[in-house]
Amino acid sequence: MRILHTADWHLGKMFYGDYLTDEQEYVLKEQFLPLLKDEGIEAVVLSGDVYDRSLPPAAAVELFDEIATKVTAELHIPFLVISGNHDSASRLSFGSALLARQGLYIAGDLDKLTGPVILRDDAGPVAFVLLPYAEPADVRHFLSDETIHDHQKALEALCAFQSRGCDDMRAVCVSHVFASGGVSSDSERPLSIGGTDMIDSAVFDRFQYTALGHLHGPQQVGRPEVRYAGSLLKYSFSEATQKKGAVLVDLADNGQVSSRFISFTPRHDVRILKGSFHDIMEREDDRTGDYVLARIDDTEPVLDGMARLRKKYPNAMALESPRRRISDHAGDRDFNIRGTTEEELFSSFAGAMRPEQPLSEKETDCLHQLWDALRKEEGGGIL
């Protein structure tokens, strides 16, 4: 059986105040859907965080509805989806029993879990064990097991419940967890405080393949058959160097697994530009429409930097100056502004902006002439 493993779509995600729905739609329609046809995919698994928040915007819901319909109704490929920590389990699993008859299997609300989903290929049945994200307290209540107090125990118990009846089958697990040894990114919401959300990946040893979601960087954990597909797009600048895509998994008749990562190319990439402000503005770049953060190494302030940067990069999101020198007296407010002349106020500002380069004699003379002209024009003081 050939399976496509994808995760962490975060439909409706906002990036620095802008919705990324159009960017997500581009990747899903122009690359994800064609990939299903081109590679002969027989099942698709989406390992949680379908949406970016529990109450997603209407455009995000419409996009998921359109993609799910194309996968199941048009391509006739079973689509198996679990809820992640960003999703509302109850909203996502609404109508799940009815949708399952159409090949869309959604596991979210614990009360609606029905055990493994059994699909078949020429070699026989393949069990898909769907483990939606759930808080330990919710699993404890659902299973009436008072010994469940952490994510590890909760996952083990939920896995046992969902795996019943598939001991002699090839089995694929779909889960949304933070597996120990995984590398996180800034855009992932912590599952708990203090590291108690960590899961020992040994819980997945009985499965031929485990399709994980939550961590946005594609990676394997423990063994090659336990993998994170990573997120659909780059959702923070900490992900700028990561590849984004999906994992193509071939499950052989004897249970052996081979997999390979297939990259997606976004319409607009997320990049960090480095160098001096002048160099960044002067160097040739054929991708000026990307979402960029400029991390400049200038030691002096760059006046009106963002506005100037956006003339070249209209989607510039941030400008950082980690090496900028700051005066020892920056931030001092020990002078009376009402008793300060225009020249003194500007000299204070210049000293804060250029602590290592005081105004030259020529600059000072020029400023005196400017102040004199302004006073004559204003008929007195200008403050």
Automatic annotation (TrEMBL):
Key words, A-Z: DNA recombination, DNA replication, Endonuclease, Exonuclease, Hydrolase, Nuclease
InterPro entries: Calcineurin-like_PHP (IPR004843), DNA_Repair-Maintenance_Comp (IPR050535), Metallo-depent_PP-like (IPR029052), Mre11_N (IPR041796), SbcD (IPR004593), SbcD_C (IPR026843)
GO molecular function list: 3'-5' exonuclease activity; endonuclease activity
Record-level GO BP terms: DNA recombination; DNA replication
The Calcineurin-like phosphoesterase domain, residue ranges: 1-104
Any one Pfam family match given in the protein's UniProt record, by short name: SbcD_C
Domain Nuclease SbcCD subunit D C-terminal, first and last residues per copy: 267-350
Function summary: SbcCD cleaves DNA hairpin structures. These structures can inhibit DNA replication and are intermediates in certain DNA recombination reactions. The complex acts as a 3'->5' double strand exonuclease that can open hairpins. It also has a 5' single-strand endonuclease activity.
Protein family: Belongs to the SbcD family.
The protein's assembly and partners: Heterodimer of SbcC and SbcD.
Protein's recorded name: Nuclease SbcCD subunit D
